[in-house]
Write a structure and sequence with these properties.
The chain contains 17 helices and 10 strands. It is α/β, with parallel strands linked by helices. The longest helix is centred in the C-terminal third of the chain and has 28 residues. The chain folds into 2 domains: 320 residues, Alpha-Beta Barrel (TIM Barrel); 70 residues, no CATH class. The mean pLDDT is 90. The strands form 2 sheets. It has an 8-stranded parallel barrel, surrounded by 4 helices. A two-stranded antiparallel ribbon has the order 9-10.
Length: 438
């Protein structure tokens, strides 16, 4: 029998396919990273454009602090109102941190609403409000009074309202200057077709060009409020095509739970954030957008912390107001914790008195996680960033990055200080970020 024929090494024989694999993986990474990088807010407060005035964020903080002082003047009462099981010391510390947040950065993201929170008005009236909003935005950029994130919710890009949306954007833009507004975004409601998102993207590009802002200075946000925005007529997850049409500008996708449930025939009495249909939508969005950098934003709790008596005259009326506020705070806190458990950190607020409930519930949850997360991440870093185990928890690099992201989020939103985190971690946060490539 003759000598066996020499075969080339597998790497040589399969080189063309290996090169195709490398290119395919790089292309996938480029496509999946659709959203802007950087800090993400933990809440967004929507307010009608006709109500937007200079110092709006600080005013919201003042109103939120007044509600907190009026109904929860001490830590234990505050924790009870939110349904939190905390020691008196923990509850008092939590309340102090929320007060600091309300004084320093009460609103992380503010959306000037020209849609549902504004309504249909004569063109001349909306023109005037758009010009006024642009003036206040530019003034706020100059004096530093704007929150870290701010933007406009325009009318839907469909039919006559599309032209109205462009006219509003043009008038707001006419008042802006040559320096970009940090964290500025345009939010598109009721999107169903990629061409609507393309129009929004081109609107942002045109505004950047006119103002001399760098490309990408304006982020885009999409609102999923109809079933067809999530699932297209051919049965595909249509949200991917919508995000792709944003051309890398899509920062977040907002869940519009009440329009969605209404479109599904669910009566108003059963429309709420915890409805199974809303939870299904959130899960599908998470699956579709995983790895893209696009975050999902939960809808609002519509039970507002407002008492039935505007000016209570006796103890019974004051008690009725307190009961109504506590009930609304507990609902908001439950919605915040449920969303966080499911991996959704940001959500809507509609009233300044909701801010104590949102920040209290989120801060308590984040702080509860800090000791365990810091210990696991410290163990991982001390083991030269190799897969390791602490107790029953096994951590690899991906898990470690998740732990680091949670700790950084706690610092960014004010739930903890950098010193607290680095003391628990035993490493500087920047060092941990460099080690993990995050």
């Amino acid at each position: 029998m003759g000598a066996a024929m020499a075969l080339p090494p597998l790497t040589e024989a399969l080189q063309p396919l290996l090169e195709s694999l490398d290119e395919a993986l790089h292309q996938r990474d480029r496509e999946r990273r659709s959203g802007p990088a950087g800090r993400r807010p933990v809440q967004v407060l929507y307010g009608g454009a006709h109500l937007f005035k200079a110092g709006a964020a600080a005013r919201m903080g003042t109103l939120a602090r007044a509600a907190l002082d009026s109904y929860a003047p001490d830590g234990p009462t505050y924790a009870h109102a939110l349904g939190l099981s905390l020691s008196p010391t923990q509850a008092t510390e939590l309340r102090k941190r929320v007060i600091a947040k309300l004084e320093q950065e009460p609103v992380e993201d503010l959306r000037i609403d020209f849609e549902d929170g504004y309504g249909i008005r004569p063109d001349e009236e909306e023109d005037a409000h758009a010009l006024a909003a642009g003036t206040v935005l530019e003034q706020g950029r100059r004096d530093g009074s704007l929150p870290p994130f701010v933007g406009l919710r325009l009318k839907p890009y469909s039919g006559k309202s599309a032209r109205r949306a462009l006219r509003t954007l043009e008038r707001v833009g006419a008042q802006l200057g040559g320096e970009p507004i940090p964290g500025f975004a345009l939010t598109a409601p009721k999107v169903v077709l990629p061409i609507q998102v393309e129009l929004l993207r081109r609107s942002a590009e045109a505004l950047e060009h006119r103002l001399g802002w760098p490309p990408g200075a304006i982020a885009l946000e999409l609102m999923v409020e109809t079933p067809s925005a999530l699932v297209s007529l051919d049965g595909r997850l249509g949200i991917l095509a919508l995000v792709e049409a944003a051309g890398g500008r899509c920062r977040s996708v907002h869940v519009g739970p009440y329009d969605l449930t209404s479109a599904l025939g669910i009566s108003a009495a059963h429309q709420w954030l915890g409805h199974p249909s809303v939870e299904l939508v959130r899960r599908l969005l998470q699956l579709a957008l995983s790895g893209t950098g696009v975050t999902i934003v939960d809808g609002p709790t519509t039970l507002l912390p407002v008492g039935p008596h505007r000016e209570p005259r006796n103890d019974a009326e004051r008690a009725a107001n307190r009961e109504a506020v506590f009930r609304a705070w507990a609902r908001t806190a439950d919605d915040v914790r449920r969303a966080y458990r499911d991996g959704i950190v940001q959500g809507w607020d509609l009233h300044p008195a909701q801010l104590p409930a949102r920040y209290g519930a989120l801060f308590a949850t984040l702080r509860e996680e800090i000791p365990g997360a810091a210990a696991r991440l410290r163990q991982f870093l001390d083991q030269s960033a190799q897969a390791t185990r602490l107790g029953a928890e096994f951590d690899d690099a991906a898990t470690a990055r998740g732990l680091l992201n949670g700790l950084r989020r706690a610092v960014e939103c004010g739930a903890a200080t950098t010193v607290e985190i680095e003391t628990a971690l035993g490493h500087p946060l920047e060092h941990a970020r460099e080690r993990l490539g995050g």
